[in-house]
Design brief:
By secondary structure, the protein is an alpha/beta fold. It has helices at 12-21, 24-31, 35-49, 65-86, 106-123, 138-144, 187-192, 206-214, 230-234, 245-253, 283-295; strands spanning 54-57, 60-63, 99-104, 128-133, 149-153, 162-168, 170-175, 195-198, 220-224, 240-244, 257-260, 269-274.
């Protein structure tokens, strides 16, 4: 049985020329070799494929049935090798129909990915954006599920390449109708009011750790794993919480909450783009990262 490892792949290009032209002379001219050299190649191909490939009919050559069946798959295989291996692939946003898959928290999706979606509509209208939930095991997401990019908060570790997308600040928020707090939030308000706290799989945010250290006996009234649920829990209550500045400003503009400067300095949060090294030379993935950086 013939195996691929035992085949001289240099024979594929002259085989295509022979099948195209049905002539040793013209095949030799196309590939830039002498006619005797091409005749020798034809003999080798006949032995390899156990078929005559070209048979004389009158004054010309015709393809055998086996040779006719080889031409289309051979053309397809050599086109793929040329486009995907020999030459660098090119990405055309205006023509692409690719689906980009991004893993993100709901907060980042609401504030950052909306800008990316507008960009895709404008310059790559046939592409689509698929947003999937962020999970702590982001490396697994990129490894086996077809995700192109992960928007990863800096407390979550990864072994894959990461680049800072944007830096976020933390602000304190209360319900827009909360009258238990004035325009200035005091330290005793943090002690007095019940809190809504974020927790995702035991991952501790630096802002929450700081508040816990300053107010060790604060009353945690509710715990959430999605920041976008916080404003809805605050509605009609005296509870207080911390929220990313971008999300807070977006929801404050819609009258859902009130933003207050925290009396305690809260360390910021970095959000990074993380991708699999297999996409380093994928021009579509590189283009996606560029567009995302430009949209924040």
């Amino acid at each position: 049985m013939t195996t691929l490892a035992s085949v001289d792949l240099n024979l594929l290009v002259p085989l295509r020329a022979l099948l195209r032209h049905r002539s040793v002379t013209r095949a030799a001219a196309e590939t830039g070799v002498s006619q005797p050299a091409m005749s020798n190649t034809l003999r080798r191909l006949r032995r390899l494929l156990e078929d005559e490939l070209l048979i004389r009919v009158g004054k010309s050559y015709e393809l055998t049935a086996r040779a006719s069946s080889l031409l289309e798959p051979l053309e397809a295989a050599l086109r793929t090798i040329d486009a995907e291996i020999v030459n660098s692939p090119v990405f055309s946003p205006a023509d692409s129909r690719r689906t980009f898959t991004v893993a993100s928290s709901n907060a980042a999706a609401a504030t950052v990915l909306s800008g990316l979606a507008r960009k895709l509509i404008a310059v790559a209208p046939h592409t689509s954006l698929h947003v999937v939930p962020l999970v702590p095991s982001s490396d697994q997401l990129l490894g086996d599920s077809g995700v192109d990019l992960v928007l990863l908060p800096d407390p979550i570790p990864t072994l894959l390449p990461r680049e800072r997308l944007y830096d976020e600040e933390w602000v304190c928020v209360v319900d827009a109708e909360n009258r238990e707090v004035g325009d200035v939030l005091r330290l005793d308000d943090l002690v007095r009011l019940p809190h809504v706290v974020f927790d995702m799989g035991g991952i501790a945010l630096s802002a929450e750790l700081t508040l816990q250290a300053v107010v060790p006996d604060r009353r945690v009234q509710a715990t959430v794993s999605d920041f976008l649920t916080i404003p809805f829990l605050l509605r009609g209550t005296t509870m207080i919480s911390v929220l990313q500045g971008r999300v807070a400003r977006l929801l404050s503009a819609h009258g859902m909450l009130r933003i207050l400067q925290c009396p305690v300095h809260l360390p910021g949060l970095g959000v990074d783009m993380v991708w699999n090294p297999r996409g380093v030379k994928d021009p579509a993935c590189a283009w996606l990262r560029e567009q995302l950086l430009a949209s924040v």
